[in-house]
Specification:
This protein has 707 residues and is of the alpha+beta class. It folds into 4 domains: 195 residues, Aldehyde Oxidoreductase, domain 4 (2-Layer Sandwich), CATH 3.30.365.10; 149 residues, Aldehyde oxidase/xanthine dehydrogenase, molybdopterin binding domain (Aldehyde Oxidoreductase, domain 4), CATH 3.30.365; 202 residues, Aldehyde oxidase/xanthine dehydrogenase, molybdopterin binding domain (Aldehyde Oxidoreductase, domain 4, 2-Layer Sandwich), CATH 3.30.365; 101 residues, Aldehyde Oxidoreductase, domain 4 (2-Layer Sandwich). The protein is 25% helix and 24% strand. A 7-stranded mixed beta sheet has the order 3-5-1-14-11-12-13, with helices on both faces. The structure holds dioxothiomolybdenum(VI) ion.
Length: 707
Amino acid sequence: MSTAEPITPRAVGAGHARVDGPLKVTGHALYAVEHGSDEGVTDPLTAWVVGAPVARGRVVRVDAAEALAHAGVVAVLDHETAPRLTETGDAELAILQDDRVHFRGQVVALVLAETSEAAREGARLVRVHVAEEAHVADLDEGVDAGEAYAPEQANAGHETDWADGDLEAARGAASVVVDQTYATPHEHNNPMEPHAAAAHWDGERLTLWDSTQGVHPVAGTLAPLLGLDQERVRVRAPYVGGGFGSKGLPHPPEVAAALAALSQPGRWVRLAITRQQVFSLTGYRTQTRSRVRLSAEPDGRLLAVEHDALSQTSRAKEFVEQTATAARMMYAAPARRTTHRVVPLDVAVPSWMRAPGEMPGMFAHEVAMDELAVACGVDPVDLRVRNEPDRDPETGKPWNDRRLVECLQRGAERFGWAGRPAEPRATVDGDWLVGTGVAAATYPTLWNPDNAARIESRAGGRYAVGIGAVDIGTGARTVLRQVAADALGVDVEAVDLALGDTSLPMATVAGGSAGTASWGTAIVQAAQQFRADHGPDPAPGLHTVSTTEGYPDTEGHALHSFGAVFAEVRVDRWTGEPRCTRLHGTYSVGRVVNPVLARSQLHGGLVMGLSAALHEDGVRDPRFGHTVTQDLATYHVAAHADVPPDLSAEWLEESDLLATPFGGRGVGEIGIVGTAAAIANAAWHATGVRVRDLPATPATFVGGVRG
Ligand code: MOS
């Protein structure tokens, strides 16, 4: 059938409370390793990961004698005894298949035991003998060795290098130039629920209760790896304690749980990695270095934008943070040049973390814009307005509905920007130097095809809607019900929604801020097909399954969301301690399906940006190749006391029917974009100290503010 038609919003736009809220707060919602108990499983095994003790080398021998002698330990799997995988091309996922050690912490053995305590103690007792080889785990060392290379493409299929316009002419005409290097550190997703799975192999079928952002993608990856037809792999994830990208792709914990189950037919096996293991087995945002060169007219109008991004990847498997992509489309300029280079290291495999690319890239770009505003003596809000492009500079297409200027102006009004002193260090409040800053945000409107939904009529005018999507805590279970209700023209109470199970129709990952758009469009299409098939008053038991076809008008338009973030920062003039005391974002994200849940997403993104600005810092010890700050004490994630009480997010009233039939775009990622820059810019305004290296800590400021 044709693609979905726009719907009339009734439930969409209303602030329905989370449908699973009561289950969650009363502890009745079951997470991955809690499953099995509800199916009468009384004797699950626990699997525990043993990590490689060195960054590079070969496993000579795994001595499991002591572990096996420990009471309760049932088995120890290593690269010689673990079940064989059919596909081993993905070095991150092909665990326990050969003796190669690619990074410290890599899975080199699995201990299976009758209790969690015995499994953990057994893992401690496993002796892994390795032949260590020389490794490189430091970006500069890799650069100095000439290892930086141009990848074939960056994450999400972006071109490695992209340029347009006459750069030499633009540079030559410039009277103001900002040319600086900006750095972001290794950042690690830390969802409340670590990566975990309960797995069961009955000799025919593998069942996995997983903590994932996509049950179908996990089954689709695991099945060929294990040499099974996909119908023989069932993955379920009814409740997930956060992901932020770290559960967007299958990682070693899922493979480990599957191998453990295959080795013990008929028994449930539970595997939950430790917080420490989250830092090496689930991906992370690599450190980035961005050289940004802005060439401008005296009034701040850009003539050229250049962004050269450097990051690292693992030698085992390439991942390239698409740091420079936002510079291709953000502002008008006659010429631009963007590149990505990457250095392979003997380290854990990096992956997705909320707004891959845009987050570190817009930190660099938006601090550079602040520096340009200062250099030109132009207000930072005005500078951005002055550089507004009327078409997408990257594709030349018209925008779907670019409203960055309105976000900046409304946000400025809401925040109280007017009258801000241009000079830094102009406001002192007791021991605190006080400043304000702004940055723009953007995120592409992504959408995944090939989602499907099932609609079934039930007695009493009710409908059952099924889609194999996952609610990772964002509220998908609630908003999809709202979308379904409007698509069917019934009250939300008349809709029963099932998700989180590969026995339900195909759904793509909860990622790229594309979940609600992609799944919601599939539901609208299925509902409209159902009405076409069965009319407005169907008998119970009729059903329709429909797969989405291309909805968003990406041929005719460049689809993006935008926002403006405003921050107030105070820095203690004696200790240099920075505190973010006010934080506000105004966004243009299409129609907001549920204001309660969207605000929660945007607040979460703002807080995660604050955390990146002032706290998160994954410190690697290059001598050993691992992250030494591998717990929540030494890798500090913003906690309640770090978050300003004056935190707010708002959005423009709008509906984007080019993006989805309900007018909404995504809200998951844009909140983190630009936030660290707004805070860094506010810190400069407070102190006169320019922040180009995250996180900004007391050490950043103390030399510049004392006295
Ligand atoms: Mo998000 S990093 O796209 O899961």
